[in-house]
TrEMBL record:
Annotated PROSITE patterns: 4FE4S_FER_1, 4FE4S_FER_2
Function as written in the Swiss-Prot or TrEMBL entry: Ferredoxins are iron-sulfur proteins that transfer electrons in a wide variety of metabolic reactions.
PANTHER family in the cross-refs: FERREDOXIN (PTHR36923:SF3)
Region Disordered, residue ranges: 44-64
Keyword Metal-binding among record annotations: yes
Protein keywords: Electron transport, Iron, Iron-sulfur, Metal-binding, Transport
Gene Ontology terms for molecular function: electron transfer activity; iron ion binding; iron-sulfur cluster binding
Name of the protein: Ferredoxin
Upper lineage: Bacteria, Bacillati, Bacillota, Clostridia, Lachnospirales
Amino acid sequence: MKAYVDQDGCISCGLCIDLCPEVFSYNEDDVSVAIEGDIPEDALERAEESRDGCPVSVIDLKDE
C-alpha cells in the first residue's frame, strides 16, 4: 500500500507527521509529503489514522 498527499490542499497542520513520521514529513515548502514506495507494515495502522484524521481529507492510501 502507498500513501499520497494532495499537496495543493494540505494546510500543514502536522497531524499526519505526528501520527506517522515513518510515512509523512514536510517538504521544503512545509507541506506534507509521503514516502516513496510502500508503507511499512508496522506503520500501516498509523497511516490509516492519519488519513482518517486529516482535517482537509488530502491523504489517500492505495494498493498498488
